Amino acid sequence: MAAQMNKKRKFCNDGVFKAELNEMLMRELAEDGYSGVEVRVTPTRTEIIILATRTQNVLGEKGRRIRELTSLVQKRFNFEKDAVELYAEKVANRGLSAIAQCESLRYKLLGGLAVRRACYGVVRFIIEQGAKGCEVVVSGKLRAQRAKAMKFMDGFMIHSGHPAREYVDSAIRHVLLRQGVIGIKVKIMRDHDPTGKLGPKKPLPDAIEILESKDEPAPAKPHSVPKNRAPVEVVPAHVPVVPQA
């Protein structure tokens, strides 16, 4: 049945599956620092890798919670038995994960912390973790009845072009407070990393690298080489022949 599926429909189904899986895990693992999901399809089974800051909470006591999540995914998406496997992977640097910082800011606001203090704390932490720039936007009824938006920025941020897709990580969350719903948007611009672990391998297209000049040997003594003149033929002088006795 899967072999007869149209290519366009297959890609749509894969996208819907990942979006629904991401939404489910985001609601379930929000308190455990959920930072995204990766789906790897092999001929024998489907591997789902959950990225989180607190992997021990995702696994649960003796792996109980990860088994519950595996069973839930298997029943919801009609997988065969032992055809899907869930793994938990720790995020390399949570300061460069927009989802993790968005959730952190969300719980700070739910705890009653002032908006400015919470946002400045998140911005400072992101920059200290090695980000090139960040932007935090909070909108809604922050103090008065009139809704407004507040933007907190630091560092360097690009907004357009293909590098924005590779360098900028963004996340959006909604906070249900007593006065209404507040929207949070966090954008983090990572720095160039040749290893590809903490940032993109490909450098920015407008990044200019100035190379060191090469050491050239100095000439022994100054001399000039005429280039525009015609070559002068050297006529050998007449040598007199001395007769032999």
Explained architecture:
The chain is of the alpha+beta class and 245 residues long. Helices cover 30% and strands 24% of the residues. The strands form two sheets. A four-stranded antiparallel beta sheet has the order 5-4-7-6. A three-stranded mixed beta sheet has the order 1-2-3. Helix 4 packs antiparallel against helix 5. The N and C termini lie far apart (116 Å).
| Global outline | elongated
Secondary-structure element series: HEEHHEHHEEHEE
Find the structural class using helix and strand composition: alpha+beta
Radius of gyration: 32 Å
Number of strand segments: 7
Terminal residue distance: 116 Å
Strand portion: 15-25%
Number of helices: 6
Secondary structure: elements and pairs:
Elements: H1 7-28, E1 34-41, E2 46-52, H2 55-59, H3 64-76, E3 84-90, H4 98-110, H5 115-128, E4 133-140, E5 148-155, H6 162-167, E6 168-177, E7 180-189
Parallel strand pairs: 2-3
Antiparallel strand pairs: 1-2, 4-5, 4-7, 6-7
Helix pairs in contact: 4-5
